[in-house]
Structures are given as C-alpha cells and as structure tokens.
Batch of 2 targets.
Target 1
Amino acid sequence: MGDGDTWPLAADRDDPPALSVRRLSKRFGDRVAFEDVSFDVGRGEVFGFLGPNGAGKTTTVRALGTLIAPTSGSATVAGWPLEPENGMEIRRRIAVMPESPGLYLRLSVLENLELFADLYELADPRDRIERSLRAMDLTGRARDACGILSKGLRQRVALARALLGEPEVLFLDEPTAGLDPVAAREVHELIVGLRQRGVTIFLTTHRLEEAERLCDRVAILNTTLRSIGRPDELRDRLFARTLTVRTAAPLDAPDRVFGGLQAIEGWREDGRAHYVLAASDPDGAAPGVTRALVAAGADVLSITESRRSLEDVYLELIDGDVEAGPR
Ligand SMILES: Nc1ncnc2c1ncn2[C@@H]1O[C@H](COP(=O)(O)OP(=O)(O)O)[C@@H](O)[C@H]1O
Ligand SMILES: [Mg+2]
C-alpha cells in the first residue's frame, strides 16, 4: 500500500475531518489484525468499512474508539489525536455500538438506558434518554424488558444507548448482522435518519449491498485497505471490463496475437479456445483484436464485451493479492 496521504480526502475540506487515519496498524503478537490503513472521513459522512470476517473491522473500530491501543501509525478522532491522554476527550465525542448489543435483558429498555446514562455521567439524563428513545422510535417500548424484545428491537435499543451521549461520530459494528430483512431495513432507515442529523457514521459490514445502499464512501478492507471511494466510483473502477474471444481452434501462439496489442492490458485462457482479454476500452480494442486474430489465421467465432459483477470483483479484491486490486 502506498503513501497514506494519497488517499482521497473527505468531501468537506472546511471542517477538520471527523476521522483521519494514517498508516494505522494493530498486531496481536504475530497476528496482524490490520495493517497500514489510511483514510479520512468527513463530518456528516456515512463511511462504510467493508470486508469479510476476520478482515480487521472490529479491531479498527476498537482502536479508533480508544478501547485498544494501535501498534503503529496515527489518527485523529473527532479532531483529537488518538493518544492515551486524549482518551476522555475522544470518548466524550464518539459512541461505539459493538457487534453484540450487551444489554441487561432482565431490565427494561428505560432501565438499561438509565443505567448507561448514569455510567456515562450524562448531565440531564432524562432529556437525553427521551430523545434517544424518540429517535429510535422506542418510546412505546420503554417499559418492556429487553429480554422479550426481538433481535431487531434490541438492536434499536443498542442504537438508542449509543445516541445517549449525542456523539459526533458513531461507530456501528455490523449493526444488521443476524437481522431479518425487515429489521435490517429498519436499521438502515434509522441510519439514514442519523445521517440527516449530521452524525458522522462509521459503519462496518460484510455485506456489499448494505455498504452500497447506505454509504457516501466505502473502504474495502482485508487486513490492508484494498480500495476506497464512492460506491459509484468503486463500481466503475471495480467493474473491470473484458473482451471474451472464442475461436474455432486454440491459437498456436496467443501471446503473440494478444501481447502486441496496445489496447489489451492482459489476457488469460479460460477454457479451450476461449480467451479473456482485459481492456479499459473494449469497443476501441475489438477491431484490432479481430485483425490480429485474422492475421494469425484464426477462425473467430465471437468477440463479446463483458463486465464482471461488483460482487465478483469484491470477492477477488478481498481474496487475492493486495497488488491484484485496481488502484
Ligand atoms: N484480542 C485479540 N487477540 C488476538 N487476535 C485478535 C484479537 N482480536 C482480534 N484478533 C484477530 O484479528 C483479526 C481481525 O479480527 P476482527 O477485527 O475481529 O475482524 P472482523 O471484525 O473484520 O471480523 C482476526 O484474525 C482475529 O482473530
Ligand atoms: Mg467484527
């Protein structure tokens, strides 16, 4: 991964970013949880942190949330350098909703919020609790024991708890994991609502479509950052374009045919007499490919343009060699 400063900066340059992360790494002994991670998140942005299980998402949240110390690199969180002496200041401005809500199931929704409001030593807890309940549309459930609530409702209580301190930056660690589609959709709507209030949201997910739907920008992580950008940019960048060529018989020397063509960035054989060529401008490349094939004496059956799906490329990005990812 290159110099951290080359990453695209957040959209709003007037305000200091909500998060600014430079070459951050965390190791547990020999195990690398994440490495050399750099990005900025603008104020009010919904930033997606997308990656498979074990990619380092939760560890990144815990490091930025001041719960564990990074091994190397630097960051600012809500304007404060991520240093032990700033832990209190940072924690006053952020909230972390962990993967499992960690509510007291025998206590009511209200009692849970009261307990945490007390723990956070909030001034004016009653008002904060009421506002959190309203924001998460839970006022009618305040007296219900958390233990009888559905998973989706518990997740909403956890969100309400995270909102108690009115955070500038809210870390949501896989907020829809294990929820049914209806409950997941509800959480999505709540996140959209929070965004409209100007809360900066750092959302981890292993679900591509969730990142696409909710996030202003998305970073793809698998221990190292593989790509970062707006969903539509990632689409364009990741939708690698190819030409698929089928010939009547295998080419004698495919490298000689395809290797000399400037418009072709690479090629591979994908079955017998079936070639996949990488080309950023497939339309522009096709005539030259046809001429080269004819000159080589090949009988061309077809030349077609294809695009891999975003999902294909995502899987390849998180799976393959770091260098395999487009920049
Ligand atoms: N406290 C820990 N001690 C040792 N290894 C850990 C610890 N926490 C996380 N890891 C390791 O760091 C890697 C990233 O984990 P994690 O951040 O939980 O990934 P994700 O949230 O993306 O699924 C994994 O290999 C995990 O086993
Ligand atoms: Mg995790």
Target 2
Amino acid sequence: MNLETGACNTWCPGCGNFAILASFKKVVEELVKEGRRHEDIVIASGIGCHAKIVDYVNVNSFYSIHGRVPPTISGMKVANPNLTVVGFAGDGDGYGEGVAHLVFAAKRNIDITMIIHNNRIYGLTTGQFSPTTPQGQKTKSTPYGNPEYPLNPIKLMLGAGATFVARTSSFELEHMRQMMKEAVNHRGFAIVDVVEPCLSFFNAGDYIKANTYKMNHDPSDLKKAWEKACEWNYTTEGKIHLGIFYREEKPTFGELLLKGKNLRKS
Ligand SMILES: Cc1ncc(C[n+]2csc(CCOP(=O)(O)OP(=O)(O)O)c2C)c(N)n1
Ligand code: SF4
C-alpha cells in the first residue's frame, strides 16, 4: 500500500517528527493488513510543526485548528462509529491551547486516539516555552529561564479518567509503533505522549536517550501508574518511564449514547 502523498516535507532534518511519521505509517499498514478498510482510517491534526503530519500520510485527513483535535475527531467518531480516528497534537496544541478539550475527551471515554508530539517547546512559532518546558529553560519567550513548573500530562490524563495512557520516545521506533497500535486498538480514549527533541529550538535528544526506561508493571493498577508517572515531572531529572502506565476497559461515550434512555432515572 502506498502511504506516500508526494507532499514536500518541510520538517527540519533530524526532527523527531520523522520517526513518529514512520511508526504511524507502519501501524496503518498493519491495520489494513488485518482487515481495516484504508478509507475508514482518518487522521486530524492541530496547528504546529507536528500538524503537517496529515499532509504526509495518504489516508483521509483533516487539518484542524489550534488545540481542537479532540472535538474534531470526536465529531467524526460520533457521526460514523465505524471510523478509526487518530489525532495528532503538539504539547502546545494539546496541553496548552486545547487542554480542556483533551481533559473532557478523556473524561467521557470517547473512542479516539491522541498522539502527542511532545518536544516541550512551540516549534512552528520558533521556540517559545510550552506547558511541558522544564523550569529554568531559556526560550524565546523566557530569555531569563522559564519561571513556571512544567505540567505532567501523564498525571493530568490519569486524573481526567483516561482509560489508556502511554508514553514513548521518538528514539524508540519499535516501541513507538507498539504503543500507537495498542492505543488505536484500545476501546475508549487513548493517549500516547511521545517525548521527542526539537532540533532547532530545544534539542534535548541526548537527555531523553540517557534517561528513558521501559516499564513492566501491571497496567490495570492505577496506584502503580500514578507512582510511575510521578517519577518524571517533565523536568531535567528523574526516570522517563516508557510504556503503558494505565489501561482500563469501561463503556465508551458512543456506547453510553446509544443506550441513552437506560441512563435516565425515570
Ligand atoms: C488560537 C491560536 N493561537 C496561537 C496560534 C499560533 N501558534 C501556531 S503553532 C503554535 C504553537 C505550536 O506548538 P506545539 O503545539 O507544541 O507544536 P510544534 O510546532 O512544536 O509541533 C502557536 C502558538 C494559532 N495558530 N492559533
Ligand atoms: S522547528 Fe523543531 S519541531 Fe519544528 S520541524 Fe524543526 S525540529 Fe521539528
């Protein structure tokens, strides 16, 4: 299957987005081999360097607006439950501008997948700090160092009720493919946080490579998931655990909508 689009790729050489793109294409190929119709796989993105991914994969796609990927793909899923919908967002896009949408998509357990290109900086707008930029980091908008504490999106998503929460790294192609595939196959809201470098504005590649570890705990254990999530607060120290923090099966928003009247008390 040809997943090339012919669009000119404008990412900087060495950007972590290339690895995310390659892993996702493998997932699409596998899904189609396993029987999912090519035309039933739909992707959407927000705004940022990450967002160009929709131009680079030959599947049905939608370039949405900043932070609005979760409602965009939620609408698609509600309108046509047969679709497999996957959203791509940046850390600025998903954890900043659109964070309320992400929280509410997790809360209602809608059957969508979000993949976050977490380079911990605003790439497209040339290097302002984002919600996951470490404290003290000098950026274009924090020339004396970022005074804020970074947001820990794993804890945020666990707290919001996400039923699949995973983290991977753009340096781990096979692990990334596995996490994306598990997320897409999960019935309910799934999020994969992909830690990656931005070669031009926050090149933390060596730090990421030196501090990532694969987890091996029981992903149905929420307490353990929280413990693991607390070991790295997106700062400059601590173990960056990779793998599935938490997975739970529970009725999805679509299923609950369909049996709506059974939910009413009278
Ligand atoms: C409502 C709105 N606010 C601000 C912008 C400007 N803007 C475009 S991309 C971007 C940040 C993108 O950062 P991130 O989501 O981390 O993606 P990256 O470029 O790093 O992939 C901003 C602030 C916009 N397009 N729309
Ligand atoms: S600015 Fe950063 S995120 Fe954007 S393409 Fe270049 S390396 Fe990638």
